[in-house]
Amino acid sequence: MHRRRFIALLGAAITAARTPRAQQTAMPVIGFLKPDLPGSVAPFEQGLNETGHVSGRNLVIEYRGAEFRYDQLPSLAADLVGRKVDVIVAPGTPAALAAKSATSTIPIVFFSGDDPVAQGLVASFPRPGGNLTGFTAFFAELMPKRLELLSEVVPKPR
Question: Is 29-142 a domain of CATH 3.30.470.30?
Answer without folding.
Answer: no
